[in-house]
Amino acid sequence: MFASLSRAARRRVLAGAAALLAVCGVLVWWLMPFGSPVPSGSVTFSTGVSTGVYQRYGDLLKQDLSEDLPEVSITLKESEGSQQNVQRVATGEADFTVATADAVAQYQRERRPGWERLRGCARLYDDYVQIVVRKGSSLQKVQDLRGLRVGVGQNRSGVRLIADRVLAAAGLTPDRDIVPVPAGIDTMPGLLERGELDAFFWSGGLPTQPVQALSERFQVRLLPLDTALVDRLHDVGGSTRHYRSAVIPADAYAKAQDGRPIETLAVANLLVTTEQADDDLVEGFTRTVIGSRDRIGRQVHPAQLVDLRTAVYTEPLTLHDGARRYYRSVKP
Question: Which residues fall within 8 angstroms of residue 74, CB to CB, at 6 or more apart?
C-alpha cells in the first residue's frame, strides 16, 4: 500500500511518522526518573553513653539526616562505646555507627562475626586520651596509678580498650595492679568528685562536655602520656599502630590545665557501615556528615574537625562504594 502512494504522499507519511517518534521520545524522556533513587527505609545508628560525644553527635546528625533524607527513618541506639558499636554493625544490629580505628582494627584482627563485612564512610575527628585526677593529688604519671581505684570505661567501650593498653605499656597489669572500675563518662566524673575514684580514663573529642563541666566545679588536672609510652604501644603492633602522639591544647580545659598543654595520644574516629548498605543511602549519609560539619560543630566542637580532604582515609576499613561515589562527585 505504501509503495502505491505518490512520491509526495510518501514524504508526508514519513514526515508524520518521524514527528510521532519525536513526540514519543519527548514523552519517554519526561516520564523517566533521572538521578539516583531517593533512599528510603529504616536505619539504626549506634551511638554511645547518654552524655558522651557520640550520643550528642548522633542527636544533631539525625536532625540533618531527617532533612536531607526525608524518606529514611533514623533510630539512635545508645551503647557502651566503640567496641560494642563495631559489633552491632558487623552483626546487623545497627546500620551505621561511629567507632575508633583501633577498636575496628581489633575486631578485624580477631576475625569476630561479620568482620569482613565492615566498610568505612568517613574519617571524622580524633579522640584524645584524657586521664583525669584530683588537682591536689600526688599523681604525676600513669605508673603512679598502681593500687588505686581507676575508672577505665565500660567493658565494651573504646575507652576500656585504650585504657588497658596504656596501663600495660606503663608496666601495669590492668586487672591486678589497679582496682579497675568499669564506668562510663556519664558516671566517672561524679565518682571522682565524691572520692569514690582516684582517677579515670577518657578517650574523646576536645573538649568533652562532662570533663569540661567537672573541671569548672571541681579542681582536677590531667596526667601526661609521654612519647616514650606511645612508642611502646607502637612496638606492640597490630591495632596499636593507629595511635599517634598528640597534645591537648592549653585551652581545652582551661581550669584543669593552668595554661599548659598536655602530652597524650590520639586515635581517629570513623563512620562505619557494612558492604550490604545501599549505595545511594551511604552516599547520602556521607554527604550529610560532611555538609553538617559547621552546624554540628557549633554545639559539638570535635565535629568542626571533620575535613573533606582527609575524610576519605578510613583505614583500616575499605571505603564503601557509596561513600566513594560521593567523594568523586565533590572532587575538584
Answer: 43, 45, 62, 65, 66
